Recover the amino acids of this structure.
């Protein structure tokens, strides 16, 4: 068994391996919450200017190119990365996460020129070019007809999902690896996605050699996924780039039915996050779609041991159960940013049943709804 030794790297708050038990011992729940609230501030240094040791990034890049798995930060959530051109390495992602093999992955690049250099797609449609110009680098994944990409990445589909992340640490890691990286979220499959390095450590310690701590994620939910492989651009997964923003770049965009509803039996998942129950803590989550008063009364009538509320900030003072707030009612960015950390806190507290306030389905709130409806297994109660 190969032993990996963590190396201090000034670019990151921490740089450690999954065998580094010291990090686990020093990180309390209070420390995690403090880190979660800190602003994204990883420095965007360039070679020659950095105060860290360039060999640290080179070491991780070489490990990735050679087939290793690495937990990496992005502006959306932390990813579990492998060489996207190495089918055997990509298979290890599925094994480490316990991820079904028919759930496609996203290929991450650090420069648009890598699409052509590695023949990732057959062609770049004009609509894709407009989206790239408007929102890359950033939290947007674009699906196009695939070129030379292993089937392990695309789940055998004839399309490939490509993203150019904006996190400076992510870009430097990809550049150091000198290959595109396939990376789903770095968590146990089906569980809430990780927005701090400690979340990755919690789920994957002992399964991967390296985790890079780049601070708390800025967006907090996975990237928006849009396909331009068909006749009309179609939103497959909402995220940090909203539907109105997409339409500002390319005109009308269809919304796949599975964005807000359960994927139909037998329907193929064209994007990550469509097919399976996702993002779920161990507790049962029931979403309540109602007005303010109806929600408060419904939850208070069911107050009992092991029951909690996943609610807006404004609801908490009026509830007679343990509360987990995921943002103010109209602050969709805060809801997005805090959601997964709150879902993980529910797990750590041993709650049995959670009555969740159902978010809106417009703008950035659509991304929050998309995650919560899957975390709840599509269990929704409508109140008059």
């Amino acid at each position: 068994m190969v032993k990996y030794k963590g190396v201090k790297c000034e670019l990151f708050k921490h740089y450690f391996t999954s065998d580094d038990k010291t990090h686990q011992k020093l990180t309390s729940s209070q420390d995690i919450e403090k880190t979660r609230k800190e602003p994204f501030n990883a420095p965007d240094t360039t070679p020659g200017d950095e105060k860290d040791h360039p060999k640290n990034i080179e070491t991780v890049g070489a490990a990735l190119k050679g087939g290793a798995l690495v937990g990496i930060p992005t502006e959306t959530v932390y990813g579990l990365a492998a060489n996207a051109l190495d089918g055997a390495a990509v298979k290890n992602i599925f094994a480490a996460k316990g991820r079904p093999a028919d759930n496609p992955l996203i290929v991450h690049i650090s420069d648009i020129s890598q699409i052509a250099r590695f023949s990732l797609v057959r062609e770049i449609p004009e609509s894709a070019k407009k989206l790239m110009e408007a929102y890359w680098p950033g939290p947007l994944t674009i699906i196009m007809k695939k070129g030379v990409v292993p089937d392990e990445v695309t789940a055998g589909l004839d399309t490939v999902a490509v993203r150019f992340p904006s996190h400076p640490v992510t870009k430097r890691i990809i550049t150091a690896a000198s290959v595109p990286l396939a990376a789903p979220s770095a968590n146990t499959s089906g569980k809430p996605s990780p927005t701090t390095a400690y979340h990755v450590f919690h789920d994957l310690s002992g399964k991967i050699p390296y985790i890079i701590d780049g601070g708390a994620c800025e967006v907090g939910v996975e990237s928006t996924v849009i396909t331009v492989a068909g006749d009309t651009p179609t939103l497959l997964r909402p995220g940090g780039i909203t539907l109105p923003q997409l339409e500002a770049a390319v005109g009308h965009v269809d919304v796949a039915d599975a964005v807000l509803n359960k994927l139909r039996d037998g329907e193929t998942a064209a994007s990550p996050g469509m097919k399976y129950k996702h993002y779920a803590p161990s507790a049962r989550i029931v979403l309540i779609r109602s007005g303010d008063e109806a929600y408060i009364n419904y939850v208070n009538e069911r107050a009992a041991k092991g029951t909690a509320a996943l609610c807006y900030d404004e609801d908490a003072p009026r509830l007679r159960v343990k509360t987990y707030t995921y943002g103010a009612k109209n602050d969709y960015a805060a809801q997005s940013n805090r959601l997964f950390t709150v879902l993980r806190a529910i797990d750590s507290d041993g709650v049995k049943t959670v009555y969740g306030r159902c978010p809106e389905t417009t703008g950035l709130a659509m991304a929050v709804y998309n995650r919560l409806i899957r975390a709840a297994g599509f269990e929704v109660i409508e109140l008059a």
User: Anything to note?
Assistant: The longest helix spans residues 332-348. The CA atoms of residues 228 and 234 lie 7 Å apart. Confidence is low (pLDDT under 50) at residues 1-53.
